[in-house]
């Protein structure tokens, strides 16, 4: 599986957009990019996934660069409840989809 | 609907004892995963079940760890002769495969975890 690199921590002001970067420079053509988050003392929660195109859902937007070597998760209007560890994962089909979680980015949303 | 449930939520055991952790996946989900998360670390894959196929046990750290899934639903993770380094949060996830090209899931749904402390 492609290794992903994320900053260990970021801060964001409440109501502002949070932009979380992820580097996956060794990603292969069939690997999807998944984002999950883990709020303190809870299990991880799926946010969004993408292959090549930018994606948007009710939680977030995912921007994948054209060369697919990096991506950015955007929370358009961060709230205090978005404070969590955010994990970026690259997973190929045929791997049984077992997700390899790194240490992620601790996003702290400040009032 | 009901999500993934796990029991117990907390378990304290003495070194050397055996423990069983239970996972009830979302009804109809064919895939079930076990992960563990040690303090301050990311999630570590342990084992994967998919339907009637042989489980992927590639993540189990030692032969003290085993898991089974009965009737394609409930799963039990057993740790024999527990050691202090087994202390972690054990997370279960389920997924409905086949939604992505290539058969993968859009997402895995995680339970709240079982916090295991070995004293």
In brief, what are we looking at here?
The complex is a heterodimer of chains A (111) and B (119). By secondary structure, chain A is an all-beta fold. Helix content of chain A is 0%, strand content 45%.
Structural description of this entry:
- The complex is a heterodimer of chains A (111) and B (119).
- A 5-stranded mixed β-sheet of chain A has the order 1-9-8-3-4, with no helix packed on it.
- Chain A is mainly β.
- In chain A, a hairpin with a 4-residue loop joins β5 and β6.
- The model of chain A has no long low-confidence stretch (mean pLDDT 91).
- Chain B is an all-beta fold.
- Chain B has no helices and 10 strands.
- In chain B, the strands form 2 sheets. In chain B, strands 2, 4, 5, 8, 9 and 10 form a 6-stranded mixed β-sheet that branches. In chain B, strands 1-3-7-6 form a 4-stranded antiparallel β-sheet, with no helix packed on it.
- The model of chain B has no long low-confidence stretch (mean pLDDT 90).
- Classes of the chains: A mainly beta (111), B mainly beta (119).
- Chains A and B meet through β4 of A and β4, β5, β8 and β9 of B.
Instruction: Report low-confidence residues of chain B grouped into runs of 5 or more.
Output: none
Strands across the major sheet of chain A, in which order?
Answer: 1-9-8-3-4
Helix percent of chain B reads: under 10%
* Helix run count of chain B: 0
Dominant shape of chain B: globular
What topology emerges from the helices and strands here?
The complex is a heterodimer of chains A (111) and B (119).
Chain A: E1 9-13, E2 18-23, E3 32-38, E4 45-50, E5 55-56, E6 61-64, E7 70-75, E8 84-91, E9 105-110
Parallel strand pairs in A: 1-9
Antiparallel strand pairs in A: 2-7, 3-4, 3-8, 5-6, 6-7, 8-9
Chain B: E1 5-7, E2 10-13, E3 19-24, E4 31-37, E5 43-50, E6 65-69, E7 75-79, E8 88-95, E9 109-110, E10 114-118
Parallel strand pairs in B: 2-10
Antiparallel strand pairs in B: 1-3, 3-7, 4-5, 4-8, 6-7, 8-9, 8-10
């Amino acid at each position: 599986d492609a290794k992903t690199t994320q900053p260990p921590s970021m801060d964001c002001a409440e109501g502002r957009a949070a932009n979380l970067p992820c580097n996956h420079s060794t990603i292969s053509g069939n690997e999807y990019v998944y984002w999950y988050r883990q709020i303190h003392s809870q299990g991880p929660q799926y946010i969004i996934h993408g292959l090549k195109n930018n994606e948007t859902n009710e939680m977030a937007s995912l921007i994948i660069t054209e060369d697919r070597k990096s991506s950015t998760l955007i929370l358009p209007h961060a709230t205090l409840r978005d404070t969590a560890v955010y994990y970026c994962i690259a997973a190929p089909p045929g791997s049984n989809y077992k997700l390899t979680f790194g240490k992620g980015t601790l996003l702290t949303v400040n009032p | 609907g009901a999500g993934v449930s796990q029991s117990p939520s907390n378990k304290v055991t003495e070194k050397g004892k055996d423990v069983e952790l239970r996972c009830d996946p979302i009804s109809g989900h064919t895939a079930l995963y076990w992960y563990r998360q040690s303090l301050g670390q990311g999630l570590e894959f342990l084992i994967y079940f998919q339907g009637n196929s042989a489980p992927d046990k590639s993540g189990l750290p030692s032969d003290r760890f085993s898991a089974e899934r009965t009737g394609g639903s409930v799963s039990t993770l057993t740790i024999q002769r527990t050691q202090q380094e087994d202390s972690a949060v054990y997370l279960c996830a389920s997924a409905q495969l086949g939604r992505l090209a290539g058969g993968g899931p859009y997402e895995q749904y995680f339970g709240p975890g079982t916090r295991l402390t070995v004293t």
